[in-house]
Amino acid sequence: MIDARSSSAHAPPPRATVVAGREGGLGTFGGVFTPSLLTILGVIMYLRFGWVVGNVGLVGTLVIVTLSTSITFLTGLSIAAIATDQRVRTGGAYYMISRSLGIETGGAVGIPLFLAQALSVALYTVGFAEAVVGAFPSFDARFVGIVTTVAVAALALVSARVAIRSQYIIMGAIALSLISLALGAPLDPANTEATAATLTEAREPFWAVFAVFFPAVTGIMAGVNMSGDLADPGRSIPKGTFAAIGVGYVIYMALPILLVTRADTASLLVDPLVMRRVSLWGDAILLGVWGATLSSAVGSILGAPRVLQALARDGVLPRSLQWLGNGSGADDTPRAGTLLTLGLALIAVWVGDLNLIAPVLTMFFLTTYGVLNVAAGVERFLGSPSYRPKFQVHWAISLLGAVGCIAVMLLINALATLAAAIVVLVVFVLLERQGLEATFGDVRRGVWMSLTRAGLLRIPSDSDPRNWRPHFLVLSGAPTRRWPLIALADGFTQSRGLLTVATVVPVDAVTAQRREAQEQGIREYLAKRGVQGLVRVVPAPDPFSGAERLVEYYGLGSLSPNTVLVGDTAREELRDRYCTMIERLHAARRNVVVVRDAESRGFGERRRVDIWWGGLQGNGSLLLILGYLLQSSLDWRGADVRMITVVPHEQARDRTLAHLQEVVHATRTGVRPVVEVADGRSFDTILHEVSSGSDLVLMGLQDPKTLGDAGFREYVEQMRRRTEGLPTTLFVLAGEEIVFREVLLRGD
C-alpha cells in the first residue's frame, strides 16, 4: 500500500457565540426600530389600507392584520434566536440562512430576497408618485416615480447614517398624520360618487386582498438587513424588531375602526387618499404618505444592496459579478450594488402598478420568512451544543411559522407558490453544482448526524438476507495508482451500500495532522471522479496488519464493511503474508474479492462479464449477486452477464441449461445461462477459450479452512497460473455469516 497524496485540510472556524458588531455602529432605535417601523407604516397603510377595509370589512381586516402579524411575529422569534446565537454580519436574512442551512440554501433564498427588496423600492416610490399625483393631478406619475427613485438611491449612496437620520424627521411626519387622522371627522355621504355597480366590480376576494396587504408587515427585514451596520446586532435585532412589530400591530388594529366609522365602503374602495378626506388636517396625511413611502424606499434601497454584497462576498454570484461585493468608505457602502438595485427599481417603476408589484413581493418575502423559521426550528430541534442562543424559542414555534408561511402562500395563489418554489430550487441546484466552498459550518451536518444516529440505533444487529446491502472496504493504497479497484467497488455499491476507500501508511512516517490531510486529499479526488464514499487512512507496521486491523475495528454497528476488495500482489516474497491476510479476513466473516487486474486491458469496453458457476451453494449465490449488482450499475449497464457452467458430454447439456434457466428465473438476476460441453477438454482450456474475449471474469475461491495454511497458499498460486492471460479476473470468497441463497430467492 502506498501513501495517498497529501492535501491541506480546510476546517471551518468555530462558531461564534459572542455576538459583536461594528465599532461605533448604529444602535437599536436608529438601526432597527426606526427603519422597520417606517417600512411597516408605509405605502400600503396610506394608499391601500382603506381599499383593504372596503373589500373585506372591519372583521376581515382585523383577521388579515392579525394573521399577517402572527407570521411576522413567529419569524421575528426565529430571527431573534438566530441573531443571539451567531455574529450577524452584512446580508441580514441571507447571512442567517446561509450560516444555518448552508450557502446553497442561503443563496437560493438570498437571490430572490434581493430581487424582492429591489422591487420594494419601486413599490414605495410608485406609491409616493401616486400620492403626489393625487394632490397635484397635473404631474406625471411615471416621471415623479423615476425622479424619486433616483433621489432615494443618491441618498443611500451618500451614507447609511445620513439616510437613517433623515428617517427621524419622517417619523415625526407620520406621527403627525396619525394624530390628524385620529382627530378627524366622518365623510359627508352626499360626497360619495361611487355607484352600487362600481362597488360590486371593485371588490376582491379575501386572499387577493391579503396578498396586497402582507408587504406592509414585512418591514422587519429593513432592520435585519442593516445587520452589518449595527454596533450590537445580537441585542439590537431582537429588541428593535419586536418593538416595531408591536407598535405596527397596534396602529394597524386601530386604523380600521377609524376608517369604518369615518367613510363608506364605496369611498374606501375607490379613493386611495380617503384618509386625507377624513383627517383633521388633510395635508398632514400627504406629509405622512410622502414621508412613509420615501422612508420605506430608503430602507429597501439600503437593504437590497447589502444582501447583494454578502452574496458576492460568499462567492454565490458568478465571478463576473464579484465586484458587487466591494464597499466604499468607513460604512462599507455597497455603491455598485446600489446602482444595480436602482436599475431594477427603475424598470419596475416604469410598470407602475402597486397591485401588480405587491403580490410578487408577498411570495418572495413569505419564502424568506419560511426558510428563516425552518433554520431556527432545525437548529433548536437538533440540540447541537454549538447552538446556544440567548433568546430561546421552542422548535415547534419556529416550524409553526414555516407552516404558516407555506399555507398562506398556497391560499393566496398555488401556482405562484409553485413558481416561487421552482425559482428557489433552480437557484439551489445551480449553486450546488458549482461546488461552493464555505469557510463556515452549517446545520446540515447536524441534520445528517441526527438522522444517522436514529437509523443506526434502529438497524437490527442480526443479519437479515432480505435487507442485505453490499458494504465494500477497498484496500486501494494510493487511489491514483489503483483506481480500477475503486471504480469496480463503486459499481457494486452505487446507491445500494457503503463504500470505504482505505489506505495503510507506516506508523512512524506520518503525523495525525498529515493523515487527516491525506484523507481530505482522497475525498477530493473521489469527488472529482464522481464517487461517493468514506475514506480511512490507517497507520500500521505493514499493509497486511493494517488491513486486518481495519476489518477488526472499522465500522459502526450494523454498518461495518461486509466485503473487502483487495488487489492481487505480484511480489512473490509477499505471497505467504498475503494469503494469511485473506484467511484472516475470511475468518473475520467478511466476503473477500481479490482483483487480478489485467493492466493492459483494464475492464475493456465493459460489455461482457463471465461468471464461472458451480451452483447456489458456497460462493455461487454471491457470484450471482455481484453479477447482478455490476450489471445494474451505471458503468456496466447493459453488459451481457453470462452464468457459465461445464458439463462432461452433450447428453447433459439440455438438462443443465433448463436447470440454469430455472435458477435465473427464480433469482431474477437477468444473467444469461451458458452451458459448455467439455468433450474431453480440460477446464483450463475451456476457461481460456470462452472468456478470453470478455471484459471481466468472476470465479469462486475454495474455503481456506478446508485446505490448511500451506494448502491455501498452493491453491492461490494454482488459481493465478490457471488465469494467466485472461481479462481482469475477480476471485470471490464468501465469508459473511449469511445465507446468500436467501438473498437471491427471498421466500421462494
UniProtKB/TrEMBL annotation:
Membrane topology, from the record: Multi-pass membrane protein
Segments crossing the lipid bilayer: 25-47, 59-84, 105-129, 141-160, 167-187, 207-228, 240-260, 280-304, 336-352, 358-378, 399-431
Main location: membrane
Pfam families in UniProt: AA_permease, SLC12
Residue span(s) of domain Amino acid permease/ SLC12A: 32-432
Residue intervals of the SLC12A transporter C-terminal domain: 483-597
Keywords noted in UniProt: Membrane, Transmembrane, Transmembrane helix
Subcellular location: Membrane
Entry protein name: Na-K-Cl cotransporter
Protein source organism: Gaopeijia maritima
